[in-house]
């Protein structure tokens, strides 16, 4: 299938007529995949299908957070949601569209000075029990500083507001009388139970 460019395309100072072969853009046909057995499409009434601009407005102006409300999902982008790449924004929007109507709050935490979504608005960034000295002193550097910062801010957030899918569980969770129940994925093969390191959630017993 091909579509025509509606306006002339300029190459240097030469205008190419929209009806010319050079101005035609080849596009691939839309691929349709069958829904796997046991799965179903999410009903439209359960999704937030408003335009992207309206979803973005809610993402950058979320509801105030509370430790009493456990349905919180955290993302981190050091320079804020507005500076995210288009594909990363789509990821956040997809979570919002699927989960907002079910009562989940989406927060894209950042380190932008003065932002209401700055990590300092959610946890005490000067607490040595939560953050290493390098973070407190502002000495996290190098090419991958944003990624390291993301790892460092995740634990304090999850410790205060709930458990997310990046917790690495080592050893026993104990004590058995704890009210928290951790949920995780398990990859099973014949004669082998492979536990993944991804904890996907936590609920009160």
Automatic annotation (TrEMBL):
<dbReference type="GO" id="GO:0016757">
    <property type="term" value="F:glycosyltransferase activity"/>
</dbReference>
<protein>
    <submittedName>
        <fullName>Uncharacterized protein</fullName>
    </submittedName>
</protein>
<dbReference type="InterPro" id="IPR008441">
    <property type="entry name" value="AfumC-like_glycosyl_Trfase"/>
</dbReference>
<dbReference type="Pfam" id="PF05704">
    <property type="entry name" value="Caps_synth"/>
</dbReference>
């Amino acid at each position: 299938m091909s579509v025509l460019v509606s306006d002339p395309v300029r190459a240097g100072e030469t205008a190419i007529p929209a009806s010319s072969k050079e101005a035609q853009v080849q596009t691939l046909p839309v691929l349709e995949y069958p829904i796997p057995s046991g799965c179903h499409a999410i009903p439209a009434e359960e999704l937030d299908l408003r335009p992207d601009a309206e979803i973005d407005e809610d993402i950058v102006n979320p509801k105030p957070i509370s430790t009493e409300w456990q349905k919180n999902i955290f993302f981190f982008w050091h320079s804020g949601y507005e500076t995210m790449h288009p594909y990363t924004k789509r990821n956040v929007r997809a979570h919002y569209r699927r989960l907002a109507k079910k009562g989940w709050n989406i927060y894209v935490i950042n380190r932008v000075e003065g932002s209401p979504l700055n990590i300092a608005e959610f946890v005490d960034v000067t607490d040595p029990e939560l953050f290493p000295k390098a973070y407190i002193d502002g000495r996290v550097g190098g090419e991958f500083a944003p990624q390291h910062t993301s790892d460092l801010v995740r634990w304090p957030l999850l410790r205060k507001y709930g458990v997310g899918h990046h917790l690495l569980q080592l050893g026993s969770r104990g004590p058995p009388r704890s009210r928290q129940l951790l949920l995780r994925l398990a990859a099973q093969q014949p004669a082998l139970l492979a536990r993944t390191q991804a904890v996907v959630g936590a609920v009160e017993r």
